Amino acid sequence: MKEGNQRIVSAFAPAGIGNVSAGFDCLGLALERPGDIVSIGNGSRPGAELVEIQGDAGELPRETENNIAGRVVQNMLTALRRKDALAIRLKKGMPMKSGLGSSAASAVAAALAANAFLGDPFSKEALLPFALEGERLACGSPHYDNVAASLFGGIVLIRPDDPCEIISLSYPKALYFAILHPDVQIATRDARAVLPDRVSRDVAVMQSSHLAAFIHALREDDWELIGRSMVDFIAEPVRKALLPYFDRIKNASLAAGACGFGISGSGPAMFALCRGRSAAESTASAMGAECSARDLRYETFVSRINPKGAEIIEEG
Questions:
Q1: Which range marks the domain in which residue 120 is found?
Q2: Which three-class secondary structure state does DSSP give residue 211?
Q3: Cα–Cα distance between 296 and 265 in angstroms, integer?
Q4: Claim to verify: residue 104 and residue 155 sit in the same structural domain
Q5: How much of the chain exceeds pLDDT 70, in percent?
Q6: Rounded mean pLDDT of 261-277?
């Protein structure tokens, strides 16, 4: 898009679900919505400059070096040894501290938009480290599950070796998610603080076997096994205490027909994995009813998996 002589490139990066219960810090998936949009245009001085943020209620840093999008774009310019003048505009399309990968979406959208504006000097795969550094700025450490899912789409398995390997997983076409976002904020740093420093051998074995079974069940469209293996022995037992009415909402979801239920990332968003849109809509209604009965403000939505991940939505 052009405004006068101004060239603008905009990218959209979707929200996602991290961990997906069975795969703590190594499984992630992209949702159709919501998401963030970052637009890159010609700036007034060399380097990256954050000129506008919308939709954050004034909560995000306005200084370029302290903002996720600004840091990502400046790191890309530094890596390329370029002094282009780039103006950055960030439009938040999702709540922050929601457990839906808000910081990851900002980082990914910034990386993709800047790359396209600069003539695609990096492959999509090569953008991952830049987006991860943006996530580190927001959360204290990079989280591959959120960033990789938002960037590449689908369901991804992360093998955290050196270099890290991102593996795209098969999944049933009928897979839907009912998402509940209660009116509560939980910072990723705080949610990680309650995690155990170590887990027992028995827990490690059980979690590994459930993760393997979950991946197999997705590939085989084995819905019963999907539900049985979607269990979190590491994070959910301690994090659910941070979430109001967690057990009630989980029980209502399963009673409404969900195959499985869990905490999205670090929370407070919760998700139910469902077979088909109708089941997801019924489950979302059941989750909302539990919140309404206890005067807890919330929003719900239904989504399929976003197979494309981040994408350029305007260029010219």
A1: 2-169+306-315
A2: helix
A3: 21
A4: yes
A5: 96
A6: 95
